[in-house]
Write a structure and sequence with these properties.
Strand order of the largest sheet: 1-2
Distance between the termini: 37 Å
Largest sheet: 2 strands, antiparallel
Shape: elongated
Number of helices: 4
Helix content: 55-70%
Radius of gyration: 17 Å
Number of strands: 2
Order of helices and strands: HHHEEH
Structural class: mainly alpha
Length: 155
């Protein structure tokens, strides 16, 4: 179950709405499992996933999802997609996808853009951590709590 709708990423980021959903879905899954689940902890992650799937997010869980998880997930997914989306793994190797009517950016520009999206995702993650720290909900206990993640950009 992906907790991001296909139009969320172009709606919340500067990524184009022309991106094939099948191409970005694996990156959404990776961000959801590696980043969002890490911050929420397994119990709160499972609660939000179950309620989202049942279209039953309410109260504080809806706030967590709509105000924090959605933004962090959109930006982490975008960061992963930008870093790997120009490549396709096929039976006979790895190929770089080219574009018509434009010029592909070089690897350094690509990495810089992916890192910018990751920095934004970390900012949303830190806002989520701060908000979770104000709550007293059974799915988020001291064992789940994480500390701020700091990314220092090196240019």
């Amino acid at each position: 179950i992906l907790i991001l709708k296909p139009n969320d990423i172009p709606r919340l980021t500067s990524l184009s709405g022309n991106i094939d959903v099948d191409k970005i879905a694996p990156h959404v899954f990776t961000a959801q499992v590696n980043d969002i689940k890490r911050v929420l902890g397994a119990d709160l992650y499972d609660k939000i996933l179950t309620d989202y799937d049942a279209d039953n997010l309410t109260g504080v869980y809806k706030i967590i999802y709509e105000d924090y998880v959605l933004m962090a997930l959109a930006y982490y997914s975008s960061s992963y997609f930008i870093g790997m989306g120009a490549y396709q793994i096929v039976n006979n190797g790895i190929v770089k996808i080219t574009i018509e009517g434009g010029t592909a950016i070089d690897l350094k520009e690509n990495q810089l853009l992916a890192e910018k999206y990751k920095q934004m995702a970390v900012n949303f993650e830190n806002q989520l951590i701060t908000y979770l720290g104000t709550l007293d909900i059974p799915e988020y206990t001291n064992e789940n709590k994480v500390v701020f993640k700091r990314i220092i950009p090196w240019y």
